[in-house]
Design brief:
The structure is a single chain. By secondary structure, the protein is an alpha+beta fold. The strands form 2 sheets. Strands 3, 4, 5, 6, 7, 8, 9, 10, 11, 12, 13, 14 and 15 form a 13-stranded antiparallel beta sheet that branches. It has a two-stranded antiparallel sheet with strand order 1-2. The protein is elongated. Helix content is 16%, strand content 49%. The chain contains 2 helices and 15 strands.
Length: 247
């Protein structure tokens, strides 16, 4: 296609859909102020768009990944101030009492109060022991009763949220215990009241909280001593596989 020749400075020749159109040049020119204003407006709109897309991306990403902070607000962790009760079953617990090894089964209940964990308030809570009582019959007669010792003023037990979709937890129970061994007419004529030399520590990874059927394992054997003689071990809890059940 041949375009008509035009050397005039006042006319710009353009082609639109195969036709020739002449536009006065003054309509396609801007002074410096107008250009600066237009450029600034384009930059502002571009920055605002990028920022808006960034916010949308962050929101979408957090919804997809399920951040712990959101999970806490949605109740994946128990509410602070509530008390949670659970049944406890211990099968084939192994103890050594004054040199004699025994195996027995415990059952009972435990109650904890949910408190804020200042070290990690978003992803975890502390579990303050309110009550903890288990009993077992000894093979040769007598009983063993395990209870929480003290008021747990500075709770060390922690429930931590490790995943939100689906929820997964790590639970560590740290307990100071009082153990009463009653064997009338046997090796121990009077109830023997012992305490844990070091706190008992149980750990587990429950699928929900409160757990239901999940196991917690004893981390180390626990020596039991007299409260006025912490250096002499009277008994030891060797194995203590705890199964937590709903009540």
């Amino acid at each position: 296609m041949d375009l008509p020749a035009d050397t005039s400075d006042s006319v710009i020749t353009t082609v639109i859909f195969g036709s020739v159109h002449k536009t006065p040049q003054w309509r396609n020119t801007m002074n410096t102020a107008q250009q600066n204003f237009a450029n600034g407006r384009r930059k502002f709109l571009k920055s605002a768009t990028v920022a808006a897309l960034g916010v949308v991306g962050l929101v979408a990403g957090s919804l997809l990944t399920g951040s712990p902070a959101q999970a806490t607000r949605q109740g994946a962790l128990p509410a602070v101030g509530t008390e949670v009760k659970a049944g406890i079953v211990v099968e084939k617990a192994q103890l050594t009492i004054k040199g004699e090894q025994v195996e027995t089964n415990f059952d009972g209940e435990s109650t904890v109060r949910i408190e804020t964990n200042p070290d990690d308030p978003t992803n975890s809570v502390k579990l303050k022991a309110v009550s903890h009582r288990l009993t077992a019959d000894l093979p040769n007669g007598g009983t063993v009763t395990i209870e929480h010792n003290g008021d747990d003023a500075n709770p060390q037990s922690v429930l931590k949220l490790t995943s939100t979709l689906p929820p997964k937890y790590e639970q560590a129970m740290v307990l100071n215990l009082k153990v009463t061994i009653d064997q009338p007419g046997n090796r121990i004529d009077q109830p023997l009241v012992l305490v844990t030399k070091e706190p008992m520590k149980l750990t587990g990874t429950p699928a929900k909280f409160p757990p239901d059927g999940d196991l917690m394992q004893l981390q180390n054997p626990i020596d039991l001593v007299l409260s006025d003689d912490l250096n002499t071990t009277i008994a030891t809890i060797e194995k203590f596989p705890v199964k937590v059940t709903g009540v």
